[in-house]
Amino acid sequence: MTRGRVVVGVSGSLGSLAALRAAVDAARNSGRALVAVTAWEPPEGEILYARNPDSAWAAYHEGLARRMLDRAVEEALGALPEDVAARKLVVRGRAGRVLCALAERPDDLLVIGARPGVRRAPVRRYLQQHARSAVLTAPAPHLSRHTVRALRHARAEDFALHG
């Protein structure tokens, strides 16, 4: 039984859903606890928010982040697995810093998602430079632009069985 944790960054993207599935497998195989994390910041940024703080505005955006994390867990897994010690966290801060702070021990595993062909990945770059734990990058499934566009505009009725 490993003492570390598997920390997975969840943004709701296809890559983060793949990372969530990979993190569950890693937690099961190693006996580690799973921590699914969504980092958030005020949309105007912390500096502008500090000039005119509004706790209701911050609570609203934290709630959006919490609902996104719940939806991502449901889409990727159905629910948190019962055979793994797992929890969800919503943390205010920049994603790279939050993930590095949570996966601070050498026996932790940090799991993130990645889209194929994306060169500009600031969170991944930050983790490569600052993470103290091992980092596993789970690739998102490759979908054509046409498919991605169609899925963004799909409704639940589009998937109903006809017959």
Overview of the structural elements:
The chain has 163 residues and is α/β, with parallel strands linked by helices. The chain has one domain: Rossmann fold, CATH 3.40.50.620. The protein has helices at residues 14-30, 46-51, 55-77, 95-102, 122-130, 145-152, and strands at residues 5-9, 33-40, 86-92, 109-114, 134-139. Strands 3-2-1-4-5 form a five-stranded parallel beta sheet, with helices on both faces. Helix 1 links the parallel strand 1 and strand 2 (33-40). Helix 1 packs across helix 3. The longest helix is centred in the middle third of the chain and has 23 residues, at 55-77. The chain is globular. The N and C termini lie far apart (50 Å).
Brief overview:
The protein is of the alpha/beta class.
Can you count the helices? 6
Q: For the record, what is the CATH homologous superfamily label?
A: HUPs
β-strand percent reads: 15-25%
Distance between the termini: 50 Å
Largest sheet: 5 strands, parallel
What order do the helices and strands follow?
EHEHHEHEHEH
Rg, alpha carbons? 17 Å
Class computed from helices, strands and strand pairing: alpha/beta
The assigned CATH architecture is 3-Layer(aba) Sandwich
Q: Helicity range of the residues? A: 40-55%
When the domains are counted, the total is 1
Number of strands: 5
According to CATH, the fold-level topology is: Rossmann fold
Strand and helix map with partners:
Layout: E1 5-9, H1 14-30, E2 33-40, H2 46-51, H3 55-77, E3 86-92, H4 95-102, E4 109-114, H5 122-130, E5 134-139, H6 145-152
Helix pairs in contact: 1-3, 4-5
Protein name: UspA domain-containing protein
Organism: Streptomyces violascens
Pfam family, one: Usp
